[in-house]
């Protein structure tokens, strides 16, 4: 059985990696006024944040249309028997539901839609492992079982540099954002029950980064191999320095650097920083 792997743009898997692993990507979009841009196609992270600084209002985001899913699945049906379609959390987007709906509209293709219950490179880890299994000829049900296994060890924590983005996106009340800004609060966030929720409130960025390191240490100190990604919102130099420091401390962890792209960056804001890891 030939199985294709699909994910959406919020996995933020670099194009060369997607091509090497034969991962198909369907983009979400951001809109500035009447101008819509497909992320990872029409607009990428760095120019996106430059564009945000030039606008008074934050952009809006939108999921792929069901028609876009149907078109992609019908194309894949010409080459594949099945598709495992892995998407960002259904608690923050209707993308997963769109894949489910489109699956029932395409003939000659078994579509297995999978809710990662998370986003960004944490979601990307699912897609990359699935792709490696698909290339090895594994059955879709074997791939789904492995994704469920990954979910038991996957961790992801991130902090925002400016609370106003969370407030505007409905993730934080105006009062919380105002008080948090006065106190320099850098809330640690994570996904719980498919939605973004506060994990802890930390007073400064330095202390927030230190706390994330402590959370990684809880798993890394066991000595088992881990794969991890540092995720940044237009803070590449800071991410690279952090990677170098962590790699020296935890030789059993394989680190890579990823990024918050336009859609997720809209809600977290420039300067956000995160770390995700799992047991391969």
Automatic annotation (TrEMBL):
The keyword Ligase does not apply. PROSITE patterns: DEGV (PS51482). Keywords: Lipid-binding. The keyword Membrane does not apply. It holds the Pfam family DegV. This is DegV family protein. It comes from Anoxybacteroides rupiense.
């Amino acid at each position: 059985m030939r199985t294709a792997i699909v994910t959406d743009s919020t996995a933020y898997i670099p194009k060369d990696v997607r091509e090497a692993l034969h991962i198909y990507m369907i983009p979400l979009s951001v809109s500035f006024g009447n101008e819509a841009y497909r992320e990872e196609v029409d607009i990428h992270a760095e120019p996106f944040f430059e564009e945000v600084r030039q606008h008074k209002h934050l952009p809006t985001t939108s999921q792929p249309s069901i028609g876009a899913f149907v078109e992609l699945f019908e194309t894949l049906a010409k080459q594949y028997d099945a598709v495992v379609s892995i998407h960002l959390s259904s608690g923050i987007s209707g993308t997963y539901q769109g894949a489910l709906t489109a699956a029932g509209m395409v003939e000659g293709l078994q579509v297995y839609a999978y809710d990662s219950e998370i986003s960004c490179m944490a979601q990307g880890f699912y897609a990359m492992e699935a792709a490696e299994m698909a290339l090895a000829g594994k059955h879709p049900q074997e791939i789904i079982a492995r994704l469920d296994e990954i979910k038991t060890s996957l961790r992801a924590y991130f902090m925002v540099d400016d609370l106003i983005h969370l407030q505007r996106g409905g993730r934080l009340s105006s009062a919380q954002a105002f008080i948090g800004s006065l106190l320099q609060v850098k809330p640690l966030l994570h996904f719980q029950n498919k939605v973004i929720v506060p994990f802890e409130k930390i007073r400064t960025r330095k202390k927030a980064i230190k706390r994330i390191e402590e959370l990684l240490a809880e798993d890394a100190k066991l000595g088992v191999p881990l794969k991890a990604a540092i995720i940044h919102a237009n803070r590449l130099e800071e991410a690279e320095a952090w990677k170098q420091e962590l790699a020296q401390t935890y030789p059993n962890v394989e680190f890579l650097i990823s990024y918050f792209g336009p859609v997720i960056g809209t809600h977290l804001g420039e300067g956000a920083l995160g770390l995700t890891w799992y047991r391969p």
